[in-house]
Predict the structure.
Amino acid sequence: MAYTPAAIPPGYRRESMSEERVAQQSRLTGMDELVSLCARRGFIFQSSEIYGGINGFWDYGPLGTELKNNLKALWWQRVVRERPDVEGIDTAIIAHPRTWEASGHVEHFTDPMVDCRSCKRRFRADQLDVPCPEAPKKRQASDCDLTEARNFNLMLQTQVGASEEAASIAYLRAETCQPIFTGFKRVREAARQKIPFGIAQIGKAFRNEINPRNFTFRSREFEQAELEFFCHPSEREQWFAHWRDQRLDFHRELGFGDDHLRTRPHAEDELAHYARAALDIEYLFPFGWQEIEGIHDRGDWDLSRHGEYSGKDLGITDPDTKEHYVPMVIETSVGVDRTCLALLANAYVEETFEGGETRVVMRFHPSLAPLKAAVLPLSKKLAEPAQRLASDLRKELNVFYDDAGNIGRRYRRQDEAGTPFCVTLDFETESDGKVTVRERDAMTQERISVDAVAAYLLARVGDRV
């Protein structure tokens, strides 16, 4: 027997929900609300949480893992699969120690560090505008009893093999690009590529940050998506401009508006020792403008240094002109965790409806959303056909099934997860073969055939255009 309107549970309407008008919308203004939601909904939480956590390390839960994987998949699609001039690789986290001597990390990869004689905490000497957590009245670290600044190397050391001798010391990689340079000759020859071409990879990197902060923005373990594009010296400026434009378009594709996205060229006095030019793509977080990707003209620094330290010639000879040269490198380097954090901050919206009801909704683009749809039977009596539908949809999409509690509350849970569509089976489904599909942002509802659900969703949660 079909439900009459009076019997439909609160929050479930088959008609458009336009009468539930939004009276006010607000975006994220601080990090506390986002950190709380991330832990509660299983996006991100502190590593080793039951032991009090470990500073600078974070775990991604079910929703966070899906979001991160979707971001990486889109990057890989745009940078590697859609281009005939880019090859993808996956290299080891630990490289020969000479790699990091050649790259300059052992010598140059340092931050200025100071200690507070009172609270025994450490701070970066160039970032003393943070509160000292141990000091009375939360005074600034710059007001503490500080030691003289000294250089602190950010490389994380480990040991390889059973010996404890110095020869067994190795480093966890501080960036994913160096193995690309050491593997340049092998990859170029195996892939039969000619200059210009690029090598890309996504992977973990590690830095012993003095002061990890701003949730996952600055951590000691993080992921990078990096491209090293090798070109003739005469074409370096052309390719720098090309990749600058390509990468800015990518971040717009993620849904970042121009009011929250900008580029910032590096001044001469802040360029890295290897860089001729550099530019940051920055996102406006609640804690200010911060870099989420860097584009760098690295010149021939890396290939020349690795050639010198290894004794191998990493230059190439042009088959037509017979010119022998070391290729220049244009690098694009995305902070995957930082960009995930930007996606979370960008998606977070609080809405207040006429009448005072509120909801938090994560407005991810459907192609990036962790869950694409949720299947919600109006009653547990409808569990069997609902589970059957969810099982069929999982062959194509990441789908969640939920039959616990009031349908309105289930909608709100999916809003917080950022699920773009909810598919509700009711007691008319058996007789008319239709379900109600509710869209996350506008909360409009549409009645469609059960057989058409998969095609309907796939048409709306596919790749961005």
